[in-house]
Amino acid sequence: MCPMPSAEATPVKAQQPEPVQPTRDDAVAAAGSELIGGPLGRRVLPATTWWTPVRVIALVAIGMFALGLVQKAPCYNGAWFFGASSQYTHACYSDIPHLYQGRGFIDGLVPYFDKLPGDMEYLEYPVLTGLFMEAASWLTPGGGTVQAQEQWYWMVNAGMLMICAIVIAVCVTRTHARRSWDGLLIALAPALALTATINWDLLAVALTAAAILMWSRSRPLAFGVLLGLATAAKLYPFLILGPLLVLCWRAGRWRAFGAALGGAAGSWLLVNLPVMLFAFDGWSKFYTFSQERGVDFGSFWLILVQNSDNPPGTETVNTLATLLMLLCCGGIAALTLTAPRRPRFAQLAFLIVAAFILTNKVYSPQYVLWLVPLAVLARPKWRDFLIWQACEVVYFLGIWMYLAYTTSGDAHKGLPTDGYHWAIAVHLVGTLFLCVMVVRDILWPDRDPVRRNGDDDPSGGVLDGAEDVFAIGPAARPATGTAHFEGARVRWGTVGRQVGGSL
C-alpha cells in the first residue's frame, strides 16, 4: 500500500475569495440599483463576458465626463467671452480658455522662459502641468478669432483631461481587486463631472491614482516614480509619503519606502531640474506665488478675515496654517502607531490630503478632485460618499453664485457674503464628516467596510498582511501566540484577534 500523504506534505490551495458586490454589501447601492433592475444576481457578468467591471466603469466615467462638458455649454457658447457674471450664474466657469491668452499660449510664449505681460511675469503652475498646457496649445488650431482659438484650446484640454479621468477610474477599480465595482463611485461622482475642466488638476490626480495602484502591486519604485511626476504636476501628492513613512516604520518595510522615496525624488528632479537650471525665476514662480498669495476662496481663513475688524496678514496666516498642518501630521502619525490594527494606506492618504485642504488658505472648487479617488479607497461606503459629494456640490454652486453677486454690480445676482460663508461651512463639515468616519474605521476595524469583508490592506502592497515590528500603546503589548493572515505572521493580541475575527 502506498503511504497516505501527511497533512504537512499536501499543501491546501487557498480558496479565492469572492468579489465584493456593492448591491449586496451596501444598502444604499442596493436601493439605487433598483433603477437598473435591482442588485446583481449570482450569475450576472460571468468571467467570459466583455462587460468586465473595468470596461463598464470606464464607459460610465466617459458618460459622466460628457455630461460635465454639456454643463459647460452656456460658457462655451459665449459666457466666457461676453459677460463676466453670466459664466458664474450658469456655474460653468473654467480657467482654461482665459489662460490660453492670459498666459501667452496664444502668442507662442514658452512657459517659464518667456516673461508674461502684466504682474504675473511667469506661469504660476508646476512644471509638468505647464508642459501639459503647452502640449494642448500645440494641438490647438491657429488662425481665426481669439474666441475660436480659446474654444478649441478648451476642447483639446477637455479631451486630454478625459483620458486622465478614465485613468483614475481604471486605477481605482484595479487597486482593490475584490472591490472592483467601487470604481463606480469615481465614475458617478458629481463633483468630478462638474469640476473636471475648471483647471488641470486631473493630471496630478491621475498620476497619483496610478502610483497607488503600483504600490498595491508591491512595486514601490514604480510608485515613487509616478508620485514624483504627480508632485511635478501639483504639490499635494508628496504629502502621501508622510503617512507611508509611518506605516513602513510600524511594519519594518524600510527598503520599500526607500525605493519609493528614491523613485519620487528622481522623477521629480528629472522633470524640474532642466527648468530650474535654465529658467530659475520662471520655475520658482509657482512656489513664490503660493507663499505670497493671500487668503482666498473656500477656506475657513476667508470667513475669519471677512468677519474680523483686524484680520491677520498673509505671513501670519501662512505660519498658522503651517502649524495647524503640522499638528494634523502629528495626530495622523500618533493614530498610525497607536491604532489597535495598522491603518490601511488609503485611509491615511485620504486623511493627510484632507488635512491639507482643511487647513490651507485657499480651496478652489476643483481641489475636490484630489480627494475623490482617495475617499473611494479609504471608505467605499455609498451613503457617506454621497453625503460628502452633496456638500461639495453645494460649495460648487455657492462659489459661483458668490462671484455672480460680486460681479453683477447693483443687480446683486447671486449669493451674498454671508450665504457664501455658509457654503464654505457646508464644504468643511462634509469633509470633516468623511474624516471622522475614516478615523472611526481605524480605531474600530470591524466597522471598516474593506476589512469587514476579510481583507487587510488591498492598497497596501508590501504592507498587506505584514507583521508589526513597532507600535505604541496596547498594540505594542500583544498576548502570546501568532495568527496567520494571507501567508503572513501577525502578532496575536488586540491586533491578532481582530485579524483572526475577519478570517
Automatic annotation (TrEMBL):
<feature type="transmembrane region" description="Helical">
    <location>
        <begin position="317"/>
        <end position="339"/>
    </location>
</feature>
<keyword id="KW-0472">Membrane</keyword>
<dbReference type="InterPro" id="IPR016570">
    <property type="entry name" value="UCP010361"/>
</dbReference>
<feature type="transmembrane region" description="Helical">
    <location>
        <begin position="50"/>
        <end position="70"/>
    </location>
</feature>
<keyword id="KW-1003">Cell membrane</keyword>
<dbReference type="GO" id="GO:0005886">
    <property type="term" value="C:plasma membrane"/>
</dbReference>
<feature type="transmembrane region" description="Helical">
    <location>
        <begin position="256"/>
        <end position="280"/>
    </location>
</feature>
<dbReference type="GO" id="GO:0016758">
    <property type="term" value="F:hexosyltransferase activity"/>
</dbReference>
<feature type="transmembrane region" description="Helical">
    <location>
        <begin position="221"/>
        <end position="249"/>
    </location>
</feature>
<feature type="transmembrane region" description="Helical">
    <location>
        <begin position="420"/>
        <end position="443"/>
    </location>
</feature>
<dbReference type="InterPro" id="IPR018584">
    <property type="entry name" value="GT87"/>
</dbReference>
<feature type="transmembrane region" description="Helical">
    <location>
        <begin position="152"/>
        <end position="172"/>
    </location>
</feature>
<feature type="region of interest" description="Disordered">
    <location>
        <begin position="1"/>
        <end position="25"/>
    </location>
</feature>
<comment type="similarity">
    <text>Belongs to the glycosyltransferase 87 family.</text>
</comment>
<dbReference type="Pfam" id="PF09594">
    <property type="entry name" value="GT87"/>
</dbReference>
<feature type="transmembrane region" description="Helical">
    <location>
        <begin position="385"/>
        <end position="405"/>
    </location>
</feature>
<keyword id="KW-0808">Transferase</keyword>
<protein>
    <submittedName>
        <fullName>DUF2029 domain-containing protein</fullName>
    </submittedName>
</protein>
<keyword id="KW-0812">Transmembrane</keyword>
<feature type="transmembrane region" description="Helical">
    <location>
        <begin position="184"/>
        <end position="215"/>
    </location>
</feature>
<keyword id="KW-1133">Transmembrane helix</keyword>
